[in-house]
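yo, SDR family oxidoreductase is done. seq:
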Amino acid sequence: MEGKRVAITGPTAGIGRATALELAVRGAHLRLLCRNREKGEALAAEIAALGAPEAVVIEMDMASLASVAEAARQLAGIDGGLEVLINNAGLINTRRRESLDGFEETLAVNHFAPFVLTGLLLPLLEDSPGARIVNVASDAHKFVRGMGFEDMQAEKNYRIFREYGRSKLANMLFTLGLVRRLGSKSPTVNCCHPGAVASSLGTQNAGFVSGIVPRLLKPFFKTPEQGARTSLFLACDPSVAGISGRYFVNSREATPKPWALDEAAAERLWDYTEECTGFRYTQ
Ligand SMILES: NC(=O)c1ccc[n+]([C@@H]2O[C@H](COP(=O)([O-])OP(=O)(O)OC[C@H]3O[C@@H](n4cnc5c(N)ncnc54)[C@H](OP(=O)(O)O)[C@@H]3O)[C@@H](O)[C@H]2O)c1
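structure:
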């Protein structure tokens, strides 16, 4: 990864942090897209202490599409190129919350924000031969049996695991939709499941029970470093150069549930997302 420019969302905790640190050790030039600048600066200092190339911290709150657009603008201003984008950041909420733009927050942060960010960074990726996009999805797409288009904003009924599972299914359908638009052109786009990982996921905005469950399960989960392996594989490994539109678990191609391969649902979601976000891909 020597000299490769890599943007990663959510590098300040869990899987993203482990991914960023390993990429830094491998010589990547990181663009750290962070909700919390202080945490981002602390990570950049840690990266500098490793003797790795300087990491650039860019503030981005994915609950705000204006913040996503501003972050993309700043990133493009650095030196105009990008070899890898890792859409890693994500959250799970125990109760219905809204993003700053007024959308159900799980869908907004986990799907709308990476959809817009990727679209805004696409010109940089297209200009970089062999570029790759990695979408960190989840086997949690198995919690649902489809997008549930009739209540996308969970206004009628909010269920924690349905909203999270739906947002992760959205990551997979977005991967499908983007590959359809890019065809065989660069960048490649793949998605993955990192495994069940002991991270901060589910501990923010959590009630007593949901806050304590991840802590109880921690000994049975992967470490963030183990959880980062499949993202790293998709971002770096020569064996997946030119491979696009696939789902990976434990650094191997895996078969997702059929509703994660539903082209019609992917197109319907694409239209819905463009309508909600007001952002249109030009391809
Ligand atoms: N952990 C698992 O078992 C598991 C399993 C399958 C898939 N995944 C997926 O793996 C990815 C990483 O999750 P994780 O387990 O590493 O979670 P985590 O430890 O909670 O880290 C989440 C990261 O996302 C950032 N983030 C959250 N909300 C944000 C917002 N509004 N704007 C910008 N950044 C935001 C967090 O920033 P702060 O540091 O500021 O909080 C943090 O850096 C997620 O997409 C998740 O769905 C995780």
